Amino acid sequence: MIPETPLVPSAAQRVAIPRRYLMCPPDHFAVTYSINPWMDPEEPVDASLAARQWEALRDAYLDLGHQVDSIKPIEGLPDMVFAANGATVVGGKVLGAAFRNDERKAEGPAYMEWFRKNGFPQIHDPQFINEGEGDFLYAGDWILAGHGFRSDPNAHLEAQEFFGMPVIGLRLVDPRYYHLDTALAVLDKDTVAYFPEAFSPGSQAVLRTLYPDAVIATAEDAAAFGLNAVSDGLHVLLPQAATGLAAQLAERGYEPIGMDLSELLKAGGSVKCCTLELRG
Ligand code: ARG
């Protein structure tokens, strides 16, 4: 008798694909304003702990064999550490970011400047507000795109034309999950993990259609920012407090790696927010 193929791949069948990431050291990181419900300027941030936590994330990528480039942080731009928001890069093409909040607007040109100087000739200056990979998540055959709090849905059409890829708009409805990458993580080209309640009923239906076998996160794991994760196809780096999600990922044959980014979380960011993937 031929043994049945297991439906869930084991770790042995999942493959890590080497990645190239861009990160911004948290030299000027602080919480001096509040543009999302996680940010409380009254609550102290331990800057040296933030630096150690960020370095541990960078080192984890390097240990896994990934390449990490870095952009020089600019004084007065405390959220610049959240490199994911700096652009969206697919097939070497760079869609620049244009931020919703005045406090972050200067980050857009700063990131575009890095791309100009680092060998990315195809850079598109954005016409509509989009906060980079905060709201655009490349998912293999299409790009998932969030709107509702930050990115303008017109930016979805702009991205679709620029990249020549289908862009699927998803409406975010919970202010705690103001960017798509706080409510959904792309694990590989076939699978995502997400927290359904962060999305409008119509967008939940879209996600069920596209991903009938998705990993569904609990409210607790979502609140621990567990979905702000980075996957290389095998290893999934995620906030260590999201233990339930880590267990679900392990059951599916991924290797979860818990990271402590408590200080960055005070600004409403974690693993994914600190990481911009540079797709060649
Ligand atoms: N304080 C930043 C903001 O509210 C956090 C950005 C987090 N980045 C992300 N990719 N979700 O804009």
From TrEMBL:
Q: Which GO terms describe its molecular function?
A: amino acid binding; dimethylargininase activity; transferase activity
Against InterPro entries, the record matches this protein to:
DDAH-like
> What is one GO biological process annotated to this record?
citrulline metabolic process
**Entry coiled-coil feature ranges:** none
Q: Does the keyword Hydrolase apply?
A: yes
Q: Which SUPFAM superfamilies match?
A: Pentein
Q: Which UniProt keywords apply?
A: Hydrolase, Transferase
Instruction: Give the positions the UniProt entry annotates as the active site.
Output: H179 (proton donor), C273 (nucleophile)
Is Ribosomal protein tagged as a keyword?
A: no
Record's family?
Belongs to the DDAH family.
- Official protein name in the record: Amidinotransferase
Natural source organism: Catenulispora acidiphila (strain DSM 44928 / JCM 14897 / NBRC 102108 / NRRL B-24433 / ID139908)
Lineage runs:
Bacteria, Bacillati, Actinomycetota, Actinomycetes, Catenulisporales
